[in-house]
Amino acid sequence: MRLKLLLLFVFLCSTFVSAQSPGKVLSQANKAFGGDKALKSVRSWQISGRITRRSDGAAGAYRAFAQNPNLYGEAFDLNGFETQSGYNGKSGWTRDSKNGLRTLTGDASRDFQAETFYRNLRWVDAKEEKTKISAGEKSVVNGKPANSVVLTTAKGVRIRLYFDAATNLLLREEIPFGETVKIFDYDDYRRIDNVAEPFSIVAKIGDETYDIRLAEVRHNPQLAKNDFDFPRLSDEPLPDIKSLLDEVRANADKIDRILDNYSYKETRIDREIDDGGNLVEKESETVLLSFYKGYRIRRRIEKNGRALSASEQEKEDKDVEKQVADIEDRIAKKERKSAAQTPDEENKRITLSDALKGSLLVNPRRERFRGRDVVVFDYEPNPQFKPQSRIEKLFALCTGAVWVDAASKQVVRLEAFLTQSAGNFIGKVKRGASFSLENELVNDEIWLPSRADVNLSVKILFAGINVNNLIKYGDYSKSKVEIKDAAVDNPK
Fold it and tell me: Which of 64, 170, 298, 384 is deepest in the core (most CB within 10 A)?
């Protein structure tokens, strides 16, 4: 009888632990760590100690540091083999003694940016950062019952946290990094400025496990901004970015002439974060992009992976007719303006050089991207610049990075992050919006889009809209696809 009561008691206790809401778990964690006020008072931090790799016993110095809201760095050496990584508010990078320096791209870049914000703000400002909080499964970490919480960022990065059910302190983090997941286990908590800090860390990255023993934890130290920037290598020639952008601009007409001979497909996928914190696809649309007299024509050909119905096809035919008519009007307007010798501002080319006119161009470096030599640089707002055009006003509020192919002088990758909310009382894009575009080399002559990610929150009057799009490009065909009577010819 006593055994049955004991088993029932254990079952009820475990049910109680697993039934706690994620909000309550984080609230209890805040108290255990020292409270909201104490946590928010930490605007920067720095930790240092020793790191040891378990597989071979290699050891050396370890240091990590961060500064609100989005600066983070880590550096360590193992028997002289150095590894560094950092996020400077615009782009992430990594460097080691074997592979040298490179800028993070793709999922690794997205994940490291999410980790940077987490390292600075933890979970305290999760709602303000549009991070979804959901409950994880009941767990046991290193022999201790744990409450699990999943933080899913607006870009779909899932950070899983495990809190000790008894002390409410953090036991484990699982943070994605590209194709792998970094696991950090924490122990030996001590009070630093009334905030609980772990002095023992076990990091599992890929196939390796590292033991980190901290000797010092400092809150709000004065950190130099260049601590987070790309390391300067003495033998690395630095390109002149403005001259490079002038070459990109001069190359634009040639690129457009080549592009006129291509058709391709664009698939736009709308995504959202479900109640479980998973990034799921809602719907998709595929369009064929062809040309008419040098102007792009968009024709929808699929909806949610299915071909259009007869009525939808008829609607698309009418839309293409309208696009053709608009192009004819635009050409006629352009000819009239040209005859009157007045500039056609509406059809004026907007180049990357124009867009970045109001930005500070920093951290130039040479790297390899998709087997090619590229020049990479960061950009950030110039507070002295007074933007005039709409594109100038937008980019004047952005930070990001640009990759330019050194041989063809074409942009191969672009990242942009909105540092301030932009708009007016009718419509406003909120701070934190992001856009990335990655191109691929087609036929060894032109870099064309392969993938774009768009993530933003828009407030229209009193309603809020979240936009999370993945755009895929492909099926490039170097053949002329003419528009005739609102019908799209097959590639010839």
Answer: 170
